[in-house]
Amino acid sequence: MGADALKDLPVVAAGTAAVSNPIWMQWIGQQAWLEWIPFLWQMLIAVLGAAVLVLTVYNRVLEATQRRRDLQENPAPCGSFWRFIRGEGGAVGARTAIGGAAAASVIALATPFIAKWEGVKLEAYRDLVGVETICFGHTKGVQMGDRATMRECVEMLNEEVVEYYAAIAPCMENPDIPVGVQAAMLELAYNVGPRAVCRSTMMQRANAGQYSEACGELHRWVRAGGRRVRGLENRRADSKHALCLAGAPA
Q1: How many Å apart are CA 73 and CA 53, to the nearest integer?
Q2: How many CB atoms lie within 10 A of CB 220?
Q3: Domain topology for 36-247
Q4: Cβ(186)–Cβ(161) under 8 Å?
Q5: Model-level pTM?
């Protein structure tokens, strides 16, 4: 080897290797991936919860079908929930959803989205407006100092999503509202309450078949405690594109 070639060889300090570690070993050494563990764990729980939810909804669909048959012979008391079960109101009543896969599809689509944006905390805390909250945004009967397990949080999330869907379903009078638009309204109802969604312009436009316009109404729901909240702005924008417009016809 000539003298000129020797000049170009890298100088290696004593006690070190001449070949540097591969990039993937350097990445592991930095342990940057550890920062993703809580997020990946939450997403895994949400996906498993959605899978369990689909099976749960299917079972409830069978029960609802039997109830509807019984109620045709023995009328139930008035109320939106009973009208929902009997299929007397809403797009998800008599015509398609509660009797088949549409309701399960809406709920399965909305649940992981809700879990992602609500986040999960196993100890009670106060939200942006001071409401005692725990798990995935659960507020009913919560007091500071309350604790819950991850399993309890997932169960509460699944149950509440079904309840909120049953609450807004009678308001959906248009049987052709796309699954994505329904999921966006369900997600909004979980955040602001079903009564507000039923009375909203978004619901009116969806019932009128104006799906893109309905999705455009999401940007109005970005205030908490009388002020605009950046987190809500981001959540509504994500809901508009990931749920609402994704399932709306062009």
Answers
A1: 30
A2: 11
A3: Lysozyme (1.10.530)
A4: yes
A5: 0.64
